[in-house]
Design brief:
- The protein is α/β, with parallel strands linked by helices.
- It has a domain of 209 residues: Aldolase class I (TIM Barrel), CATH 3.20.20.70.
- The protein has 13 helices and 8 strands.
- It has an 8-stranded parallel β-sheet with strand order 1-8-7-6-5-4-3-2.
- Strand 3, helix 3 and strand 4 form a beta-alpha-beta unit.
- Helix 6 packs parallel to helix 7 and helix 11 runs antiparallel to helix 13.
- The longest helix is centred in the N-terminal third of the chain and has 15 residues.
- The chain is globular and about 50 Å long.
């Protein structure tokens, strides 16, 4: 059994922060920190640095370590920092987790190793290895649509019961999966929902918050959904949740990060371009994004 870790809940809205790169594909530390400060000013409760939205999988090993340090420095103790440490190779994930702890992260989140696809026992051993290597909370990032593999609620429950994971980002279309995890883990771990259109439904099931990409673009709106729910203002929360659907559809008509970055630029924040193989955004998509941002009063 692993060493008992801090099980304080990381509640609220934790945007998976975009990384600002310069024209040479290097991390622009100052612009990234400035953008994180903007998110803090908008009322977010924490950040997930080095996630899929931050283009972590496209970074070099040194950049993966660098971005965590940037996030910790930008947060400056004002909000918790969860660091992305995922890799298909358990040994590399452990190395990244150790470095994240050394850099001052409050917890780590590792996507499911997915190629070649491991068994559920393999997933269990992967997270166990990470947990035994560090003393800060460890989490799994489950996203079957993106990675083609799903961690079963029973595996999560086993890891939670034995003290190997304290966090879960459950980015699933079918909230039955999230509900079963909540039922089995009985409040022992922090659970975030990962789809922006499911924030309110998931909160009603008992998740602790959300890690949603659109939180980079409209952080105040996502924070509002969370706060309204916590205040018991369900009708207002529902209206706010429904109001963002068209923007979500416009931005995520494709899956690379260039549309999101173009959208953020429209709101006045320079976040550079996505790393290749991302390509330019069509005029039609940009017009749709612009229209929806105007409807929300963002531009």
């Amino acid at each position: 059994m692993s060493k008992l870790k801090n099980i304080n809940k990381f509640t609220g809205v934790f945007p998976p922060v975009v990384t600002v790169f310069n024209s040479n594909g290097e991390i622009d530390e100052n612009k990234t920190k400035n953008f994180i400060q903007h998110l803090i000013d908008q009322g977010i409760h924490g950040i997930f640095i080095g996630g899929t939205t931050g283009e972590f999988s496209l970074m070099t090993m040194e950049q993966k370590k660098q971005i965590v340090k940037v996030g910790v420095e930008a947060a400056n103790g004002k909000i918790p920092v969860i660091a992305g440490v995922g890799d298909n190779n358990t040994r590399i994930a452990v190395e990244l987790a150790k470095e994240a702890e050394k850099s001052g992260a409050d917890g780590v989140l590792a996507f499911l190793p997915h190629y070649p696809k491991p068994t559920q026992e393999g997933l269990y051993e992967h997270y166990k290895a990470i947990a035994k290597a560090i003393s800060i909370p460890v989490g799994a990032y489950n996203c079957p649509v993106q990675y083609g593999i799903n961690i079963e609620p029973e595996t999560i429950s086993r890891l939670a019961e034995e003290g190997y994971i304290q966090l879960l980002k459950d980015t699933v279309i079918d909230l039955d999966h999230t509900a079963e995890v909540i039922r089995l883990t009985k409040g022992k771990i922090t659970i975030w929902v990962g789809y922006e259109t499911k924030v309110l439904p998931a909160l009603s099931l008992g998740v602790d918050g959300c890690i949603v990409t659109i939180g980079n673009l409209i952080p105040a709106e996502i924070v509002s959904i969370y706060n309204l729910f916590k205040e018991g203002k369900i009708i207002e929360a529902r209206e706010k949740q429904l109001s963002i659907f068209p923007l979500v559809q416009a931005v995520f008509a494709r899956e690379d990060m260039q549309p999101l970055k173009e959208a953020i630029k429209l709101t006045g924040y320079e976040v550079g371009n996505a790393i290749k193989p991302a390509t330019k955004v069509s005029k039609e998509q940009l017009e749709k994004i612009s229209l929806e941002l105007k409807k929300l009063g963002k531009i």
